[in-house]
Amino acid sequence: MDGAPRFLNRLFRFYYEGFRNMSEWGRKVWVIIIIKLFIIFVILKIFFFHDFLQKKYDTDKQRSEYVLEQLINSSEKHD
Amino acid sequence: MIENVDLALVGWSRAQFALTAAYHWLFVPLTLGLSFIIAIMETIYVRTGSEEWKRITRFWMTLFGINFAIGVATGIILEFEFGTNWSNYSWFVGDIFGTPLAIEGILAFFLESTFFAVMFFGWNKVSKKFHLLSTWLVAAGASLSALWILVANAWMQNPVGMVFNPETARNEMVDFWAILFNPVAIEKFLHSISSGFLLASMFVLGVSSWYLIKKREELFARRSILIASIFGLLSSLLVAFTGDRSARTLAKVQPVKFASMEALYEGRNNAGLVAIGFLKDSDKKIGKEVVKDFIFKIELPGFLSILTGGDINGYVPGIIDHITGNKEKEILSVSEKIERGQYARRVLTDYKNARAAGDKELTEKTNAVFYDKEFRDKYFRYFGYAFIDNQEDVLPSVSASFYSFHLMVMLGFYFILVFALAIYFIFRGTLLKNKWFLWVALFSIPLPYIAGEMGWMLAEMGRQPWIIQDLMPVAAAVSQISPGSVITTFILFAILFTALLIAEVSIMITQIKTGPKH
User: Which of B116, B176, B290, B518 has its CA 20 to 30 A from that of B512?
Assistant: First the structure.
């Protein structure tokens, strides 16, 4: 019955001790990973990389109509 | 090519994607290859119980960890770019691109959070065999992760297994297995992972040679070189074999890219394969494009004919055949493809107009056309040609294709020689006497990186103007956003990736100088 909590406890200890006893290079790269993920997911994603169609239209129908228009009209100029 | 599209926007969007992908590929191949080398080393440790092999394994695992940590998530940025800069493309490809990328994301998450942790935290905490299993699973998982990305890329080079749904303006997957077993995907996967194995082998060989030059860690270095040179030789032979297979497939599915990488303008029988050559502008033109000529070349007679058809006298179509067409060889001209693409586009326009007018019968009738196999095979497959103005617009840069291909191939043969020499010296016991070779090995570390980047340059620049071969040109795929925002993020990426690369190199150099722990 107490198999699952014991397993979770062992799992927690495994990661906890792993991080606690990490080497110097390990600590350095973790700092780099955290900074990098912050730049990618907080700065770049939130401020610079909006999903163009998600932001511009509310529904998939509107998005498909916009793309259909793009496919037809931008190529029609070349007849 | 497309008048209503800002060419600066297209150029910067392409440059940003190229920058991100090129930097990403600096981290990936070492992860792919070093994971297998570590797994082999750890297998020897578990089988022999030798503490020296454990020490060797742990040292290379440290360098693997640094590379993995710095490189992780750099590929996510490419996915951001699809949604922001390439929204027409992202919508048009539908679930075909999303499904492999989602599988890759889930696989990578489970791999990294479980077995990767066991690899680094599990020494002396889990059994030797479970630790070894985790190392092998990380290696296999990294390659499997690459498979899904390459399946997505291969679909862009050779779109198969889908139907275009005009109602949603998206391509829908109808045959998952055709997409997974797309010949371009299989060959691209094998060629890419084997090039990663090769790169990692050269890395291990070069770093170990440095220890021998410095007269440090002789046993460690010799054992590392033994593994790296055998694994490297096998990998470089696999790279050559899969490269040859890729070129054969390319001749069928992307014939213009194939002719461009050989700078073959006029098709001929008994066509030679250019071993070395230099190009110059000739006084001939195809439309606005200047035809290239050779200043100098060394050619292997008949080899290109053998490569494409297995027959020394076989006909290999040139760039001109693909531009003006060749009825005898059943090659359509660009003009014919443009007409077919325009017909497909007219059917799409009829569908759109019928839907807008509320004409249910005509809407259903035109919608059904897109599910007709003959229409798909004869017309819709050339849909992208409706965007093409001039026949020469379907030509990629012949110089970029030619030089990237030939530099990659020359380096490929060089790697075979280096690994073969390493094996020869190590079995003869003369490695230390041949110090010149140790220097050669050390300075060869960057070369597989260059070869890998050349390979991607050929794959991506060689298929221009297409983002999806024959279906969608790059200029039609781009989002209508401000070029200024793309330039800003381009600069941000350049700074971020350069900082990451400097961090990786400096941490690695520190660890290499420290050496394996006793």
Answer: B116
